[in-house]
Structure formats: structure tokens, C-alpha cells
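[RESIDUES AND BACKBONE]
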Amino acid sequence: GYCINLVLETMKTYSSEDGLTEEALVTKLRTCRHHHLFLHSSLRHNSSGTCRWGEFGEGGLLWGECTARHFEWFEGNPVTDLLAKVKELYGLDGEVTFRNVTITSENRPRPLTLGTATQIGAIPTEGIPCLLKVLLPPNCAGLPVYYIRDLLLNPPAYEIASTIQATCKLMSNVTCSIPDFTCVSSAKLVKLLELREANHIEFCRIKNVVDELLLMTKNSELSEILKLLLDPTWVATGLKIDFETLIDECEWTSNKIGEMISLDGESDQKISSSSIVPDDFFEDMESSWKGRVKKVHIGEEFAAVERAAEALTLAVSEAFLPIITRIRATTAPLGGPKGEILYVLIDEICRGTETAKGTCIAGSIVETLDKIGCLGIVSTHLNGIFSLPLKAKNTMFKAMGTVYVDGQTKPTWKLMDGICRESLAFETAKREGMPETIIQRAEELYDSVYAKEVVPAENDSKLQNMCSYASFNGSNVSLQSNSGEKDSERSRPTDRMELLQKEVETAVTMICQRKLIELYKKEKTSELTEIHCVPIGAREQPPPSTVGASCVYVMLRPDKKLYVGQSDDLEGRVRTHRSKDGMQKANFLYFTVPGKSLACQLETLLINQLPNQ
């Protein structure tokens, strides 16, 4: 029969298959993606040197397949000389070695003939439906499809085939969530790593793959599947490895990448910002590299960029901005008749009226002056103006500087950058000789009424988080728990999400189980169904056992809102939810029920009662 040698330059591997019929060889040529095709001279010359290719091969399957492609003839050893030719083509060093990944063909069925492969649609053929499109789900594409096609065209040995069947049976019966099973081309990754062109995206994909394998080891159902997959993987890759070594290498790889690459959720690499430099500028300059490598490894570079951003802001504010401001002022519609620069000095703006409305009038005046680009100074004790959503791009806030001397706060009479929400009213009154009893009573009244209003803006979010509320809109539930503890005692975001998930699971189980017991007592259900919630992590998907089953699910959105729904296609619904902006890492809880009617009842029940728990 015929022999075919396959060389994978990126992986530095080669394999040989012999005893092939002409049809089997043509089938492999049609389904194998290759850059170069070499034909050995033995195809056209016999031992006596007589040409056979044209005499006997013309018109045959192999002749027709090869003449339709670009190929080269070569002589010599079919393995060593072919490897030498590959090294020459790709400029590889002569000392580079290729690993033999040939799997013995002993006890292995013969490959499919060309006629059979085309008739069943395993090979794309006009007029015949593609078998793989019928067998596999619509969302299945890429590497998994090629693997299944190779199994059909080149059936493995009985032992491997039985292992694959056993794996499929176990997978179809698992009750836990399963990993996303990230598919990455190993040849592409090896090429990028060799050329040192792999970026953080490729490293994150590698980490995803090994983390998914490690996740499988932590579950008894998935761990058994992982062990069964080792032998089929050996047949597909030619790399035999034991289970313990695989896990150890995965842990090492995951830890090493985690030490270097900045993963999602790490917020120590924010884009620089400035009140006078457009954010788009910093975004263009820094977004291509920030958030890729952990900051600890490039601390000097970060410091240099921060210094450059500060220097740029200073240069714009001191040199460029005044020029632009004056140019705008000369053309301002409220300027003088000759276009001279307009200066405005306002002391205690809008102080002579009711505070709230006066504050808003003052804010509107500041916006107008800012818009026309005039120069000026506005002083005020209306602290509420700093909380207004002012549209003022050129306005700068200054505060009176103070020092603390001998137990007293004294003004320095120097302007400082920033906002001051306090005043020296009590200190000034004391200095002017007002009786101490009056000042003390004034301080008591101030603390009882106004002290809460001067909490710094950065604490607003903390105060908001301390509130406990539950609001509902449609099928979206917003939950927020009490968090009166100190910042140092707060748990990490993942822990808070886990706590929320447990609370939601408890509430869902209680609400739905109570309803099912009620229906059972009224004899509206033939048997009492027990609610068993199954979590789906951020990079997990529902098990195959949910296909066609009626499921009720709750989506735990990253913004701590909940979405309640039901579906007979849970995997598709999860994929749809995660395709929306910001929902890629949403977690889910689901449980199955007998029938869509019951699922709809429980969905409505959760929508109405879950916010009250």
C-alpha cells in the first residue's frame, strides 16, 4: 500500500501511516491542511527506473488529486530527507530534532474509503448534506469539528473508541456545571512562543485551559472524565502523560502565568487622567499596554509614565491653556465693544438669597462664564455648589490654605488646589472676642444638624453601601446587603459574590420548595419534586443533561442585580446573557423541573417573591 508522512513544523513532530489504499490516501490529502506537498520518486519509477506515473497512474485517483495541486518530487529516505527539506524550507537549525508521534496501526480499523467518506458527507461534497453539521450543535465549530471528522475518517483502535464512548456517556449524565473548555490551536501557540510574539491574550488563554483542567480535578464526576480522556489525547497528539504529571504541570503553569499577567479584576493600572487633557489622549497612549503585565514587574515604567502625565498636565495648564483662554475671551460675545479681554471678580456670589436656589443660580453663572472663556475669580461659602453637576471644563477650584498651630487652625492666606467644604467661622468668632458659651452652643447645634452634610464625597459610596434595600423592575432584582464593618474587615469581591449566591440559593430553594409542596398536597403534581440548585461559575456552562430539560434559573449579574428566567435551552440562554456588555462573567443558579408549565409558574413566583426575601 501507500505511505504518508506528515510533518508539523511548528510542533517539531512527524508521523507516518502506511498500508493505505489509494482511496484512503486521497481522502487524507483532501482533509489534511498542508503548506507543501512532496511526492517520492518511487511513485513514478520502479526499481529498474521505468516511469510508471504517466503509464499506469494517469487517470487514477491519486494522479488526479496531485496534479490539481502544487507539488514537488524528491528522492532519498522518505523520513530523514523529508525532515531535512522541512528544515531547509523554514530556516531551522540542523540540530533541531523532530519528535516521532506515530501511533501504531495495530488493531486499528482501516480508514474510510473516498467513496464512503463522500457518500456519508464526512467530506464536503456537492449535493450531499454535511454529516458533521447534522451531528454537532450549530455553535460547534473549529478544532472540535476537525477532531470529530478525523475520528470518522480514521477510526481509532477498539480500546480508544470504547474509552471515547465511555467518556461521552459520563459527560451526558453529569449533574454539575462543566468548564467552558477553551479551544486553542497548540501549533499557533507554540509558534508565537518561539518567536516571542505571544501577548497577554495568548497567555490568558493558556491559563484558562490549565485552570479548566484543574477545575475538573476538584469534582469527582469531572475528574473521572478527565482520566478517561488521557488515552484519546495521546492518540491525537502522540504525547503520553500520566494523570499526576498533567496536574502538576497545569498547577505550575497556572501559577507562573498568574504571577506575571494582570488578570481581570485587578484595578491597580488605571489610565492616567487630567481635568485639562482629554481622556482620549491618555486612552490612546496607555490602553495598549496597561493591564497586561502586573505592575510589580514594571514599576519603573509606571512611575516614568505617571511623571510624564503630570509634566504634560503642568505644561498645558501653565503654558497652553492661558493662551487659549485669552484667545477665547477676546472673541467672547460678552466682551467689550473692542473685543478686549473680559475679567470678572465676584465675592460671595448669590449670598443674599435662599441657600439652595442661590447655589443653583451661582452654578449657572459659573457655567456661563466658563463657556465664554473669560478670566475671573469667584469666591463663595455656598458649599453645595461643589455637589452640582456643573458643565465647566476650564474652571479650577481653589481653597484657602490653613495651618494648625498651638491647637488652633489659622489661615495662611494662600490659595491651594482643591475644594474646601469647611470654614473657620468658629475660630474667627473666637478670635473676634465672641463669648465662649455662645461658640460652644453653636458648635453643638452645628454637629446635631449639619455635620452629616460635610462628609467628603469619597465616602458617599460607602454610605450608600451601608443602606439595605431591595428594588424590583420587571424580572431584574437589585439586592444589596448591610456592610457596616470597616474597610479592612470587608471581604473580597469574590467572597461577597459567593455570600450573595448562597443567600439567593437559600431563598430560591425555600420559595420554590414551599410552592411544590403546596401543589403536591392539592394533587396538581403526581410526585413531590425536590429543588436542587446547581451553580454555574463565571467560566462554566450547564452540563449536557440540561439539553431539552425545563430549567428555572437566576442570573447573578456583576452589578448585584438578579435576573430570573426559565428555558428548555439553558446553554443557549446562558450564552445569550453573557454575550451582552458587562455580563461575560455573570454567575447562574438553576434547577430542573418536570415540564415547562411548572417552570413558568416557579419563574413568576420567584419574580414576585424573591425581592422580599
Observations:
- The longest helix spans residues 299-330.
- Residues 317 and 343 are 19 Å apart (CA to CA).
- The chain is about 45% helix and 15% strand.
